[in-house]
Amino acid sequence: MMFDNNEEMFPIVDEEGNITGAATRKECHSGSKLLHPVVHLHVFNDKGELYLQKRPAWKDIQPNKWDTSVGGHIDLGESVEMALKREAQEELGISDFTFELLTHYVFESDREKELVFCHRTTYNGEISPSSELDGGRFWSIEEIKNNLGKGVFAPNFESEFARLKF
Question: Which in 5, 21, 128, 152 has the greatest CB count within 10 A?
């Protein structure tokens, strides 16, 4: 069983992404609302289906929910592109892909506040979900739409899905 490293250091940023400080994972997820940057990658195949990962039961945020293909924190000293490539490799075993920035926005929940850098890619190679995840699969856009609001997906995925109008 894996656990998040509560002492891992994240940059603290303003809404434009400029670093203003640093804090631990635990501090960022404790309700402090310290704004910290994350990357999201939406992985589509040639059929237009979207790959979603299943969050494992041990995660401190949104356990057992289906979520964005790849999502992760930007570590202190890391660029958006470095974090995106590291997370895609760590979570799905994907290393050879090109991506496009879709948008960035602030997402706030009751426990945290994130500056989300959202990207997409089309990828038809092998996907190997890591032990960080409870698997994953491709979903049709229609199947996703039919399951919105039913507790199947992480709320931030539903919010982003609506924002991006896939």
Answer: 152
- Rg over CA atoms, the chain: 15
Q: Are 92 and 136 in contact (CB under 8 A)?
A: yes
In this structure, the dihedral spanned by the alpha carbons of residues 57, 45, 37 and 35, taken in order and rounded to 10 degrees, is -70
Beta-carbon contacts of 165 under 8 Å, excluding residues fewer than 6 positions away, are none
What is the spatial distance between Cα 124 and Cα 52, in angstroms, rounded to a whole number?
A: 14
Alpha-carbon distance 78 to 54, whole Å?
A: 25
Pairing mode of beta strands 136-139, 70-73: unpaired
DSSP letter for 75, please: P
In whole angstroms, give the CA distance from residue 34 to residue 49.
34
Rounded CA gap, 32 and 48, in Å? 38
Burial 21-35 (b: 16+ CB within 10 A, else e): eebebebbbeeeebb
Cα-based angle 89, 32, 24 (whole degrees, multiple of 5): 45
Q: What pLDDT is attached to residue 2? A: 44
Give the tens place of pLDDT for each residue, 145-165: 999 999 999 988 999 999 998
Distances (CA, A) of 150 to 24, 52, 103, 121, 144: 33, 16, 26, 27, 11
